[in-house]
């Protein structure tokens, strides 16, 4: 059992919640930063601080939560001083690529300068030798791809305000490592999904809709670019790699990916199949439709409102370095298993939603 102290920014997000569970199981004292919000934003981590649930899960500890924000330097400095973390996982970000076109300045502040604020806090407090820092970098750095598959040495070409903000985060992390001899590393993670994925990212939007359509609670789903290709892994497998990077004997950057790529169309076909619906595709481009083979009903339509001003058409990662240096297994959960996990969870969730609604009728 570890007696290390970890601080997770973005603990209420998909990755933060899986990472918190992972570290608690290892015996870490886990601290997380949450934002003040007018409605609850702790749904993914409630089970990690409620005493009765902690007992059920047999976790040695519970998480400690602190209010804060990536845009508030003094708050970050105070928290890091108080918590004295051995490891900081900087996962907080405005993480939606399409939204970053609507909120470019906020995205730059949170995702780019926010990273600098963490690094500076550690430096100002003289904790460079004590605290190891993990930076959540992204395959969006590759954007308009210069090489397939993408590896640690592939040149970057971001295609969104989000990608550009994360580019700053990547380089400032590397710069502080080289300038101040800090253990600060970038995980260049390709898309990873789960039953906890935010509902506006394409995979979760599809699995929720497929579950609702299969249960007669939604008529159809509107999507954007069906030809976009992504290297989709399972978030639970990826957080282990974040931890492995901080346990490594030297600070290095790693690509984390499965090495397999699929289209949005294929993900949709598989998800609907899991829900008992066989789709066939007709038409092309904006007129393409996903039709139920059995009933002939149109269940999937393209809506240009989901297109992006600049699109990342395809991403495929090469996880060789993570496999050989860290001993990480990139294909622990296959693409088919990932779709299955998400569909199972959303079928149950949609069923439960209905029961809750009925109870209030
Ligand atoms: P989520 O969007 O699920 O979670 C983002 C987290 O950041 C939430 O806890 C959110 O809080 C918090 N946050 C947002 N803005 C601020 C702010 N200004 N101050 C403090 N906290 C803030 O993202 P994921 O868990 O999917 O991703 C984790 C990280 O990894 C992100 O940095 C993302 O950009 C990066 N990444 C993700 C990939 C993926 O496929 N999932 C791939 C590559 C990189 P709240 O709950 O209050 O909104
Ligand atoms: P991405 O994820 O932009 O890769 O960023 P997202 O799931 O939003 O999009 C993936 C691809 O699907 C296409 N697409 C749609 N996307 C959304 N959200 N909604 C739709 O209706 C839709 N239809 C088609 C998109 O155009 C895109 O090509 C995620 C985030 O988690 C980032 O934080 C992270 O850095 C990267 O993955 C790696």
TrEMBL record:
Q: What's the source species for this entry?
A: Ilyobacter polytropus (strain ATCC 51220 / DSM 2926 / LMG 16218 / CuHBu1)
Q: Which PANTHER family match?
A: GDP-MANNOSE 4,6 DEHYDRATASE, GDP-MANNOSE 4,6-DEHYDRATASE
Q: What is this protein called?
A: GDP-mannose 4,6-dehydratase
This entry's Enzyme Commission designation comes to 4.2.1.47
Q: Which Gene3D superfamilies match?
A: NAD(P)-binding Rossmann-like Domain (3.40.50.720), UDP-galactose 4-epimerase, domain 1 (3.90.25.10)
- The NAD(P)-binding domain sits at 7-342
The family database entries (SUPFAM superfamilies) matched by this protein are listed as: NAD(P)-binding Rossmann-fold domains
Matching InterPro entries: GDP_Man_deHydtase, NAD(P)-bd_dom, NAD(P)-bd_dom_sf
Q: What does this protein do?
A: Catalyzes the conversion of GDP-D-mannose to GDP-4-dehydro-6-deoxy-D-mannose.
User: What chemistry does it catalyse, as a reaction equation?
Assistant: GDP-alpha-D-mannose = GDP-4-dehydro-alpha-D-rhamnose + H2O
